[in-house]
Specification:
alpha+beta; NADH Oxidase; 2 domains; four-stranded antiparallel sheet; two-stranded parallel ribbon; QueG; iron-sulfur; epoxyqueuosine reductase activity
Length: about 300
């Protein structure tokens, strides 16, 4: 076994031990296929008011500009599919929250695991430089995960795997270490259009193309302005994020519950009624969502969403 093979096997083993669902590795370099797609998406204003998407265009496409002497992109998946979610019956009397926000803010949970992995690599292999990324930096997570064989990018623009569907976070370690590289997998969406047909705001404008500026997640999380009147009645009670295109995906029949204690839902969140949400005070909001991704909207933003759904 060569050193490259040995190091690669160790990294994948260590990633599993730390709790990641899976690990794939790609050679760091310019994402040629993604460049025209990203340029086109931005020029058509599919990012709406997410101005940050226009920044660092070159870095988004080339990790060697993010990490000196980068050789490999280690992509990692972390499952967040809940064992217990708000029942269909209960949903009728509650506003809906994306499953990824049930527990503690994933940024912190994953960052800790990535740092543990990098530290493990350094202990085992020696001097390895690298940086951890969790969707807050200009890295095309899904493109790298697909390139390293962890799944394919589906018609809803999410990364999908045959074995566990798509309810997981994607993160990366970009390191200056040469490793064995994985190959991309096949696209198994076939002729299915379930996600396109089900999207409440018709945000999936073509197979594999999502207009971010029409997505419920964009409206309820990213958009800081007033919600557009023409979207009234289309949100299907989603107050934070939206899972529709994942919920209808046939591959998510194979989703398995996560075993990350920090992603366990806050009990009060599972039992909130519409009335509870409508009457929540700033103090209660800050207390319940102190460590949650939901605090990103701030109390005022969440109130705006609930008021929009209620009126």
């Amino acid at each position: 076994m060569s050193l490259k093979e040995k190091y690669t096997a160790f990294i994948k083993q260590e990633a599993k031990r730390i709790g990641f669902l899976s690990c794939g590795i790609s050679k760091a370099g310019f994402l040629e296929q993604e460049a025209p797609r990203l340029e086109n998406w931005l020029s058509q204003n599919r990012h709406g008011k997410m101005a940050y998407m226009e920044n660092h265009f070159d870095k988004r496409l080339d990790p060697t500009l993010l990490v000196d002497d980068a050789k490999s992109v280690i992509s990692l998946l972390l499952n967040y599919y809940p064992a217990e979610e708000v029942s269909k019956e209960q949903q009728k009397d509650s506003y809906k929250i994306s499953k990824y926000a049930y527990g503690q803010d994933y940024h912190f949970v994953i960052k800790e695991k990535l740092n543990a992995l990098l530290s493990g690599i350094q202990s085992e292999i020696g001097e390895v430089s690298g940086r951890a990324f969790v969707d807050s930096a200009p890295v095309l997570d899904k493109a790298w995960a697909a390139k390293s064989g962890l799944g394919w990018i589906g018609k809803n623009a999410n990364l999908i795997t045959q074995k566990v569907g798509s309810y997981y976070f994607i993160a990366e370690l970009i390191v200056d270490l040469e490793l064995e590289y994985d190959v991309a997998t096949t696209d198994y969406c076939g002729t299915c259009t379930a996600c396109i047909d089900a999207c409440p705001t018709e945000a999936i404008v073509a197979p594999y193309v999502v207009d971010g500026s029409k997505c419920i997640s964009y409206f309820t999380i990213e958009l800081k302005d007033n919600l557009p009147v023409e979207m009234k009645g289309k949100f299907q009670d989603w107050a934070f994020g939206c899972d529709v295109c994942q919920d209808v995906c046939p591959w998510n029949r194979f989703a398995k519950p996560h075993n990350e204690p920090l992603f366990q839902p806050n009990e009060s969140l599972l039992n909130f009624t519409k009335k509870d949400w409508e009457e929540i005070t700033k103090e209660t909001f800050n207390k319940v969502f102190q460590k949650s991704a939901i605090k990103r909207t701030k109390f005022e933003g969440f109130q705006r969403n609930v008021t929009f759904l209620k009126d």
